[in-house]
Write a structure and sequence with these properties.
The chain is of the alpha/beta class. It has a single domain (about 5-340), classed as TIM Barrel (Alpha-Beta Barrel). The chain contains 13 helices and ten strands. The radius of gyration is 19 Å and the shape is globular. The protein starts with a helix and ends with a helix.
């Protein structure tokens, strides 16, 4: 393990006001999104869509790293160029999703455990040889009656820490993603309490597994009320609650926090990230960046519709959303930037 190389890569992923593009949807998830828009659910359609993304002109101005899926990292442009080379040539660091999904946690109705540790060491070696320099593992924490349980939190935190340790052994920066889900009627205060508890448990496990904190990126949820909560929070309330929670739970040695969008609309994800950076950026020990999937991709996907003739317009939409989020990182995002799509 080259510790300094890992630390340098982690810093690069959150430097220059850039963020991560999550394009690591599994094939079934990608197919579901295609189905809603009448796009064929085929490998070639997925390849074409991913080529649209990786070849979008200027994307490297705003995106530091792209998280790929196993199928994606093995795919090529129509001209035979590997996606990994296209991404790297654009100044973007290739990454890879390595968990195998969240499965029901035995004995705990309504709760999940993320799997994928079996054989992970060998898979990480292969991905490194293919050009990946960071990886991602997502744990999902549901909120509801009597959940999350302590056992669910601890099981997922332990798996995240073991994954992170294996990543660093293989020379990869681990993206550590414990997501407290937005689904449900929980309040902002409940989300804050649970998120803090989850993060404290995760960092305790990372320490136990001897993970170098300077060589990770944390990918947490923003602190938000549940989607069906009767009292929704203002942008400033979300910013205050999120940063307060993170300051209580995230060590200063972590170089960056790259928020997931978690089902927020593209505009809301940007405006909330912007508020955090406006109010707190100069006083925080870590960078506050983004690692968005749908909040960057969805407008482009809706424009593309599987049609080659729509590629350029879709790429413009992708570029625009990436630009908006870079502006949000700087605390400069506003309605004028949002509307300026030329």
């Amino acid at each position: 393990m080259n510790s300094q190389q890992i630390i340098n890569t982690a810093k690069m992923l959150v430097s220059n006001d850039k963020g991560l593009l999550a394009m690591d949807e599994s094939n079934p998830t990608c197919n579901k999104r295609f189905t809603k828009l009448g796009i064929p659910q085929t490998e070639e359609a997925r390849r074409s869509y991913r080529e649209l993304i990786v070849t979008a002109p200027g994307l490297g101005e705003f995106i530091s790293g792209a998280i790929l899926y196993d199928e994606t990292i093995r795919q090529f442009k129509k001209d035979g160029t590997m996606f990994v080379k296209v991404i790297t040539d654009a100044g973007i660091i290739p990454g890879i999703k390595v968990d195998t999904g969240a499965k029901d946690l035995a004995g705990h109705p309504g709760e999940k455990i993320t799997e994928g540790l079996d054989g992970l060491r060998d898979r990480l070696k292969e991905y490194y040889q293919m050009g990946a320099r960071f990886a991602k593992w997502r744990a999902v924490i549901a909120v509801g009656d009597c959940i999350p349980s302590q056992s669910c939190i601890e099981a997922n935190a332990h798996a995240l820490a073991r994954y992170a340790s294996l990543c660093q052994e293989a020379g990869l920066v681990p993206i550590v993603e414990p997501e407290v889900l937005m689904d449900g009627g929980h309040t902002l205060e409940q989300c804050s309490e649970i998120t803090e508890k989850v993060l404290r448990t995760v960092f305790n496990q990372l320490y136990t597994q001897r993970v170098i904190l300077e060589g990770i990126i944390l990918k947490p949820n923003m602190v938000l009320p549940g989607l069906t909560c009767s009292k929704q929070a203002t942008v400033d309330e979300v910013a205050d609650a999120t940063v307060k929670c993170l300051l209580r739970a995230v060590p200063a040695s972590v170089p960056g926090i790259a928020f997931l969008s978690g089902g927020q609309t593209p505009e809301l994800a940007s405006v909330r990230l912007n508020a955090m950076n406006v109010k707190f950026r100069s006083r925080l020990p870590w960078e506050m960046a983004f690692s968005f999937a749908r909040a960057i991709q969805q407008p482009a996907l809706e424009i593309w519709q599987g049609e080659e003739s729509n590629v350029l317009e879709a790429q413009k939409a992708l570029y625009h959303r990436a630009m908006c989020n870079r502006s949000a990182r700087r605390g400069e995002y506003n309605s004028l930037i949002e509307r300026n799509k030329t």
